[in-house]
Recover the amino acids of this structure.
């Protein structure tokens, strides 16, 4: 990056790529005065950032009121949701056109599109401000929120998983149920430790490291055997990963699972989002990404058609659909990447957080201390 | 309560510092052309040969080295009606107005009377698998008429072009491309016309 620009403070900056709606979609960056991001989430075209001081900042498309600002105007700059300030926000999740929020008081709020009941408010009317989901009282300590196209999930500290919204493809795992507009529990017989909602499929990880998938069965994105696919409306164990799974991320047509040593991908890879090279455009069973084997990956994120992973040394790799510059690999010349590609923008940074949306990506990174060992990558 | 009115929810804009933007200042539309090779599909029989395994696409643009205008990767040849996706998008910064081979060449393309001379040619190329000792082979051609862009004033956006065989010009598939060039071509054309008149 150029020399003349303002230096990023030691506390780091949020970098935007692709159609983020920020800074006219030109790769850009911003930071908070006396605050820093703790958690970021991207929807199809909107973004939520939760800061260390418990504030929620939102920006992006707002056609459904998903920013919770009381309007439907597109917002092109991170904007604090003042109405939530008294409560300290801890978690946020952006779906395709809605947003979920969890606060320190134990409240879960939702705003945005609600055509399938994804707001969990007992109806299907959209909301342009954050509304309390009364189901969640402070007896539930929420560990993770997830949101897909028209789906929502909340995972408790003690491993209970609650889901609501669109179940037309079985993507909330409630078998015969159609859409539900109130939270319902999904039980796989053991505690759940991670959940991800993709566009039309979802996945969970159990505390003992098993991966389960459910929802739209096409293109191998569930990673299940042909026999299992007949039962795609309930969570089923994905065979073929012999190690413990720690995290899972679901995109539009693909799924990424992180184990202790490897990153496994499956589903659609026509744009390179599986990272298996230029000859594999679809995989129906989990396959470890060869080019990540020599790295220790500690975080994964999926956009609709792209994937980002962070290594424990703070480097980031991206792959998949390169359109609009969402892979963070260039200013104006872009191409699809079929293997994980080092984001050289961040060689002098430690990447802390990444979030991927439909056509954008946000990265929170802090500068490496001066004089620290230069990271070289061949 | 969270359901309060919107006017209390505007940002404290001083909480956020926007970093100065990267790179060069944005350029006017007439100073650049963007070309994207989006995707390719081919009739199965056109690539049935065993020796065709992977394909890339290139184009020639005046004043730009060929290495910069070919897709950086070859992709596995499409199977059946499959589409393969390059999404290879390049912004070509044009030489500035004045004496420039690039601008002269583009002007002569725009002025050409003969069909074909104003065409920007895309070539689908078969790249032999590494270690097989084969040679790259042109599999098909596709064209965008720059003259048409000039006349209509419209950029070409995600257009499906016929890919034709180099042997008999029969259609063997489709190449999807974008060529955003209307403003730049218009500027080059009128600059060329003005110069021509001054010389007379
Ligand atoms: Mg590894
Ligand atoms: Mg232009």
């Amino acid at each position: 990056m150029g020399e003349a620009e303002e230096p990023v403070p030691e506390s780091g900056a949020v970098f935007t790529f692709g159609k983020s709606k920020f800074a006219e979609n030109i790769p850009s960056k911003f930071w908070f005065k006396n605050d820093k991001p703790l958690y970021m989430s991207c929807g199809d075209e909107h973004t939520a950032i939760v800061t260390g001081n418990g504030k929620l900042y939102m920006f992006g498309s707002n056609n459904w009121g998903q920013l919770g600002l009381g309007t439907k105007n597109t917002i092109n700059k991170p904007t604090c949701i003042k109405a939530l300030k008294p409560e300290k926000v801890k978690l946020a999740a952006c779906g395709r056109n809605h947003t979920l929020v969890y606060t320190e008081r134990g409240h879960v709020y939702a705003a945005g599109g609600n055509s399938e009941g994804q707001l969990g408010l007992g109806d299907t009317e959209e909301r342009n401000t954050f509304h309390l989901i009364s189901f969640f009282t402070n007896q539930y300590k929420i560990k993770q929120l997830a949101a897909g196209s028209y789906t929502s999930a909340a995972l408790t500290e003690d491993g209970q998983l609650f889901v609501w919204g669109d179940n037309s493809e079985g993507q909330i795992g409630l078998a015969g149920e159609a859409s539900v507009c109130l939270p319902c529990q999904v039980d796989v017989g053991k505690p759940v430790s991670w959940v991800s909602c993709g566009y039309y499929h979802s996945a969970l990880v159990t505390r003992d490291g098993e991966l389960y998938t459910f929802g739209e069965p096409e293109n191998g994105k569930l990673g299940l055997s042909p026999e299992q696919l007949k039962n795609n409306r309930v969570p089923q164990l994905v065979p073929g990963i012999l190690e413990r799974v720690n995290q899972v991320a679901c995109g539009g047509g693909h799924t990424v699972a992180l184990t202790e040593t490897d990153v496994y991908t499956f589903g659609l890879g026509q744009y390179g989002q599986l990272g298996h090279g230029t000859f594999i455009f679809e995989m129906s069973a989990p396959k470890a990404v060869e080019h990540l084997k020599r790295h220790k990956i500690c975080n994964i994120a999926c956009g609709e058609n792209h994937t980002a992973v962070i290594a424990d040394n703070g480097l980031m790799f991206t792959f998949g659909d390169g359109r609009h510059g969402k892979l963070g690999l260039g200013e104006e010349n872009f191409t699809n990447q079929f293997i994980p590609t080092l984001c050289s923008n961040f060689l002098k940074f430690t990447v802390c957080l990444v979030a991927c949306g439909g056509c954008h990506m946000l990265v929170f990174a802090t500068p490496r201390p001066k004089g620290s060992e230069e990271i070289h990558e061949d | 309560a969270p359901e309060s009115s919107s006017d209390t929810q505007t940002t404290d804009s001083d909480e956020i510092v926007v970093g100065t933007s990267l790179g060069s200042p944005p350029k006017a539309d007439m100073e650049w052309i963007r070309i994207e090779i989006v995707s390719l599909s081919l009739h199965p029989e056109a690539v049935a040969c065993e020796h065709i395994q992977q394909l890339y696409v290139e184009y020639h643009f005046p004043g730009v080295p060929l290495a910069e205008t070919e897709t950086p990767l070859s992709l596995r040849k499409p199977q059946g009606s499959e589409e393969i996706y390059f999404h290879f998008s390049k912004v070509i910064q044009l030489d500035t107005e004045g004496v420039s081979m690039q601008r002269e060449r583009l002007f002569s393309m725009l002025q050409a009377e003969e069909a074909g001379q104003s065409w920007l040619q895309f070539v689908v190329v078969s790249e032999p698998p590494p270690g097989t000792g084969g040679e790259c082979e042109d599999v098909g051609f596709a064209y965008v008429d720059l003259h048409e862009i000039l006349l209509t004033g419209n950029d070409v956006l995600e257009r499906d072009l016929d890919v034709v065989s180099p042997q008999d010009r029969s259609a063997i598939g489709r190449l999807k491309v974008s060529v955003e060039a209307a403003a730049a071509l218009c500027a080059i054309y009128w600059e060329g016309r003005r110069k021509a008149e001054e010389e007379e």
Summary: The first helix of chain A runs from residue 226 to 229. The first strand of chain A starts at residue 13 and ends at 18. Chain A touches chain B through 51 residues (CB under 8 Å). Chain A has one helix and 28 strands.
